[in-house]
Queue: 2 jobs
Job 1
Amino acid sequence: QVLYQQLAERKRSGRKSFTVLIDPDKVDSNSIEQLVALSLDAKVDYFFVGGSLVISSHLDECIQQIKAACDIPVILFPGSPSQVSKYADALLYLSLISGRNPELLIGQHVISAPFVKKSGLEIMPTGYMVIDGGAPTTVSYISNATPIPADKNEIAMCTAMAGEMLGMKLIYMDAGSGAKRPINETMIEKVARHIEAPLIIGGGITDPEKAYRNCKAGADVIVVGNAIEKDPSLIKEMSAAIHSSATVQQNG
Ligand code: 1GP
């Protein structure tokens, strides 16, 4: 549990992490090279690799290319059980606790369990919560589950608490990729105050100021995908904003 311990330790010491989300379907070897170079320069903490609709077979190649070029940990963020690659460092083992679709709560896990175990990946049990992002996102459609309404802070809080008490080590609140409305800070604050697990926030974050405010509200990890796909140079500013929000001085 090397990476999980690292995340938990970062949380204990008030350090915030920046994660760049890479969708293997939207990158080629040139763009991966560029993303890695910018991420190294900006001191990005993690890569999440995955997406709701990964159809290409180059998940393995994409991860191998990243790993060959840097030592930033690669964590799988799978949209389906087929998105497992032994070349990654860890796997967000997602259970969609905000929804009531049994397949995404436990069904797909049962089917893929032997395969996931055999992968040798570090498994990170993650309570995955989709929050309404203002318009249907791919994840809200594909999951066939109702997202938590954006202003129902208590529901989000109770869902995260229940997930943690069920043993989930991370809580990931996601407004969905490209969400019109990212998760509001009041909800983040409410959830963060009631759990001890590191809190991951993503979906529709496009400006560094919003990422900073999310961290101040209690987010431990900020995930950005879409905005970086559109403008990779945003990596540097995002990273600086997130790291500057630490409650203690960061060294390196
Ligand atoms: C989506 O949380 C991630 O699952 C990131 O969302 O692509 O909107 O940054 P964006």
Job 2
Amino acid sequence: FEPAPLPAGFHFLPGHFDAAEQAALLAELRQLLAEAPLFQQAMPRSGAPLSVRMSGAGTWGWVTDKVGGYRYQRTHPVTGHAWPAIPERLLRLWAEATGEARPPNQCLINYYDAKARLGLHQDKDAVSLGGPVVSVSLGDDARFAVGGLARNAPLQRLDLHSGDVVWFGGAGRLLFHGVDRIRFGSSALLAEGGRLNVTLRRIEGVP
Ligand code: MD3
Ligand code: FE
């Protein structure tokens, strides 16, 4: 049978980064994470911990905790330091893939261990909706789900492999999406196993 067509505005570049580029990007991310360690965030109000550990780079980091809720801030909540710069390799990817003239100023780094998952959600922060989102997967495969504009729309599943790039703009920006689970041990790239995903965004108008 034929795979269903991907939703409009959803661009899938399988294997965009080859093995050498994946290794180089991983080394850059390791350096960055030594400065800005992965940390555990929590849901607004309930304080329920997110299973995905996160960090960031660029002017703005995305953070969430029980009391403050979802927000962007200029400093890492654990170290108190400004976020590291976004690696040049990712700035080039953003420009080449999307053709956007202005660079991303927010890079979210997600780490999935064997049990981590990311529930179905929309990326609907008004401050980043004007531009695209670009993502790179490194390490173990992820079972990715993408739906429609309503939470209950049918979902398509897609395996994201190490080196794959996904980006979407326009109509794609408000699609519900999530990560059901990863296939722990499916890649040897990360010595400790698991999956790193980086997303790039340009956010405007944060006070
Ligand atoms: C499709 N991250 O950081 S990346 C996120 O694998 C996020 O860590 C996932 O969802 C991850 O918000 C997925 C690919 C992705 C990102 C945003 C999307 C796909 C998307 C927004 C709309 C539709
Ligand atoms: Fe998302």
